[in-house]
Amino acid sequence: QDKKANVVVIGTGGTIAGAGASSVNTAAYQSAVVPVDKIIAAVPEISKIANVRGEQIFQIGSESFNDERLLKLGKRVSELLKQSDVDGIVITHGTDTIEETAYFLNLTLKSDKPVVVVGSMRPGTALGADGALNLYDAVLVASSKDAAGKGTLVVMNDEIHSGRDVTKTNSFKVETFRSPYGPLGYVVEGKLMFYRLPARPHTTQTEFDIDQINSLPRVDIAYNYGNVSRAAYDAFVTAGAKAIIHDGTGNGSVAEQIVPVLQEVRSKGLQVVRATRTGSGVVIRNGEQNDDKFDWVVTDDQNPQKARILTALALTKTNDSKELQKILWKY
Ligand SMILES: NC(=O)CC[C@H](N)C(=O)O
């Protein structure tokens, strides 16, 4: 690179901003305590690859992300992306909900500039801390023209993932982020190596624009298991949900006592979205249940938490179940 890129690192908290009482605390520590400027300063190698400045937007565990914070983050990223003196963005983020934030940004940002979400599984104080290298790699990706136009990316553990696909699969290991179809590429020794491209529309190719969205309709997720009852569904209806993601067993199957509940939910105007709790695969329309008859919709391969994000965005555009189904299959 002849000229160093300008990258803004937005701090939101998480373990990458965490600190433990001792170096052997790899999994027990306080997250979201180290300011973003201190996290950047701890990796002086970064100044050789980019001009970086930090901006602290939140200092939270990512489990505490809500729609309001998601919108605030998205709007700030969008604002920065419009500045000619900003070439790329890195967001330091707790890993628990990275996949939701990354999918949301992937669907709503209107820019080709690289946006990279990064976290760590061990705090900076731990033996084998992974945050410094992850941050270095994230800045590298955010500075690179090769990463432009590929949607919002998640960089962790030497891998570059699409924000659409990536999901956290292990509660404590460094090797926790996986995409069902593999990462888009690697970052090794300061080099980006891409092998795949996202097939689904993202960022500039979608109908969702963060600048135009000021609130998200309430969408809840009802987890299913043996002996499941209607209690959660009723509570979500009472709370004012506009859609319920039925986090179903297997292929989004519905227990016999829940079938009439979902019919009732739909008759009250809420959308019913069948998803799978298995962690992978697509839910087949009219497979386990007659979706045509009940006017329910199915997820494609989005896990329930990603389906919640997409459904909420879809409901800002339409409340027609056929349109919603098309959107779930498109993105
Ligand atoms: N590894 C992590 O980042 C987890 C810490 C915290 N629960 C969070 O998601 O922010």
Automatic annotation (TrEMBL):
<dbReference type="Pfam" id="PF00710">
    <property type="entry name" value="Asparaginase"/>
</dbReference>
<dbReference type="InterPro" id="IPR004550">
    <property type="entry name" value="AsnASE_II"/>
</dbReference>
<dbReference type="InterPro" id="IPR036152">
    <property type="entry name" value="Asp/glu_Ase-like_sf"/>
</dbReference>
<dbReference type="InterPro" id="IPR040919">
    <property type="entry name" value="Asparaginase_C"/>
</dbReference>
<keyword id="KW-0378">Hydrolase</keyword>
<dbReference type="InterPro" id="IPR027475">
    <property type="entry name" value="Asparaginase/glutaminase_AS2"/>
</dbReference>
<feature type="domain" description="L-asparaginase N-terminal">
    <location>
        <begin position="6"/>
        <end position="196"/>
    </location>
</feature>
<dbReference type="Pfam" id="PF17763">
    <property type="entry name" value="Asparaginase_C"/>
</dbReference>
<dbReference type="InterPro" id="IPR020827">
    <property type="entry name" value="Asparaginase/glutaminase_AS1"/>
</dbReference>
<keyword id="KW-0732">Signal</keyword>
<dbReference type="InterPro" id="IPR037152">
    <property type="entry name" value="L-asparaginase_N_sf"/>
</dbReference>
<feature type="active site">
    <location>
        <position position="15"/>
    </location>
</feature>
<dbReference type="InterPro" id="IPR027474">
    <property type="entry name" value="L-asparaginase_N"/>
</dbReference>
<dbReference type="InterPro" id="IPR027473">
    <property type="entry name" value="L-asparaginase_C"/>
</dbReference>
<feature type="active site">
    <location>
        <position position="95"/>
    </location>
</feature>
<protein>
    <submittedName>
        <fullName>Asparaginase</fullName>
    </submittedName>
</protein>
<dbReference type="InterPro" id="IPR006034">
    <property type="entry name" value="Asparaginase/glutaminase-like"/>
</dbReference>
<feature type="domain" description="Asparaginase/glutaminase C-terminal">
    <location>
        <begin position="218"/>
        <end position="327"/>
    </location>
</feature>
<comment type="similarity">
    <text>Belongs to the asparaginase 1 family.</text>
</comment>
